[in-house]
């Protein structure tokens, strides 16, 4: 029997991906659906789709982001620092570590959430190999081996492929979820995503 899947495209610097992470996994468990974790190079996607990095946005847009984060944190009872000490550093190595772990059959959900938590809740620099090694070791993983695997060219190829695939699927921001070709952008669309899954599986009333 075929197991349905959700293509989950996310940036390893995405505060919104962090806010939606637990709810996505709960959705997948409720609906018996598999999540395919696909870290992407969001600055590259922005360049190709007309998006703007946070540093390039107007003061009004930056201020509203903080306001929305505070609202969602209150709603979800999750605490994050909207302006951490190391905000949105280079996420390429972190992304490749997640891909390498996935290809090794390791649980990806707890790992990528730990990296996001390090940035948004602990003021740690996730562009630092030392920081990433510490995070991996804290999770009981072989950090040195995973970082070595993450630096291999085939993992970089997968990272680029996921980024290209995301653009082809219409993705322009993080987090984005694609189910049966339909795109849902943002953790605030998880309820609609679940409704689509239920309808496709004949579970809606």
Automatic annotation (TrEMBL):
Keyword flag rRNA-binding: no
PANTHER family named in the record: GLUTATHIONE S-TRANSFERASE KAPPA, GLUTATHIONE S-TRANSFERASE KAPPA-RELATED
Pfam families reported in the protein's UniProt record: DSBA
SUPFAM superfamilies according to UniProt: Thioredoxin-like
Organism superkingdom: Bacteria
GO biological process: glutathione metabolic process; naphthalene catabolic process
Enzyme active site: 14 (nucleophile)
Protein known as: 2-hydroxychromene-2-carboxylate isomerase
One function term, GO molecular function aspect: glutathione peroxidase activity
Family: Belongs to the GST superfamily. NadH family.
EC number: 5.99.1.4
Isomerase as UniProt keyword: yes
Keyword tags: Isomerase
């Amino acid at each position: 029997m075929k197991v349905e899947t959700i293509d989950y495209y996310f940036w390893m610097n995405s505060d919104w991906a962090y806010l939606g992470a637990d709810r996505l996994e709960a959705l997948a468990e409720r609906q018996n659906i598999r999540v395919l974790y696909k870290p992407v190079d969001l600055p590259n996607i922005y360049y190709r789709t007309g998006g703007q990095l946070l540093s390039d946005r107007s003061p009004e847009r930056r201020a509203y982001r903080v306001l929305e984060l505070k609202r969602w944190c209150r709603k979800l009872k999750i605490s994050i620092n909207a302006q951490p000490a190391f905000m949105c550093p280079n996420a390429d190595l972190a992304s490749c570590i997640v891909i390498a772990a996935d290809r090794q059959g390791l649980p990806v959900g707890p790992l990528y959430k730990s990296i996001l938590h390090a940035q948004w809740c602990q003021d740690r620099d996730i562009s630092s190999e030392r920081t990433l090694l510490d995070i991996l070791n804290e999770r009981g993983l072989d950090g040195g081996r995973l970082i070595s695997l993450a630096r291999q060219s085939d993992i970089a190829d997968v990272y680029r492929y996921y980024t290209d695939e995301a653009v082809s699927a219409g993705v322009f921001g993080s987090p984005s979820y694609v189910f049966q070709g339909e795109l849902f952008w943002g953790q605030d669309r998880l309820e609609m995503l679940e409704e689509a899954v239920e309808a496709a599986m004949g579970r809606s009333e």
